[in-house]
Input
Amino acid sequence: MAKQFDRLRMLGGTASTMFALLAVAAVSACGGADDDGDAGSSGPVASASTQAVATESSSGGGGLASIESGSGTFSIDGQQFDADIVVRCLPFDASAFGGAAPNEADFDFSAATSDFANVVEGEVAFALPTFGPGAYEANQIRGFASRQGSSGVEQYESVAATDPDGNWLMNLEPQLVANGQPPTGEPMEFEIDGNHVRGAMTLEQNWPDGATGTVDIAFDLDLPAEAIDCSLRD
Output
């Protein structure tokens, strides 16, 4: 989990990170066996929050009803799902692993169907410092998605960040922009209004190894006000 968080907030010398979705189990925080999201020969690994929600539902601990849930919808490649569970997770603190402690405004979220066949997660970091002549505070979101494909689990991931004007761009590297590179990237839709988050982004396949597919995800969610420590629930 620490590795994925450290990957996202790599801005100059600053590290931390965020986001995930898994078929048959998924949610926010981190998963996978290395910094590429590649879990090696053992296959993809559910994120901490993913494991948390799946465990809560299947371990006889009260199931979905025992989790304070928000509401909303999400879609994968245009197929829309009602979210049976929507949770807010405390952002992962990477300071113990050489990364940055989360900004107090940072948050993670996850939405899933009751059978956990489809899940969408988001990990959002605010006011991340960049270093260079054009230094500015960037915001970032990491999107992770996973579903059951015809030949097994397919996993997808992408990162978006804001440029100096506050525009959300896919695959933007804020540190390069701060050092004089143009802020190139595909525009991304993302809005936060209190506990309501909505957005859409294209994720690139990173599992199985060598796969090159993409999926388009969208989400429109009302998050619960209280965040849970998903890292302690797997």
Remarks:
- The CA atoms of residues 94 and 114 lie 30 Å apart.
- The radius of gyration is 16 Å.
- The chain has three helices and eleven strands.
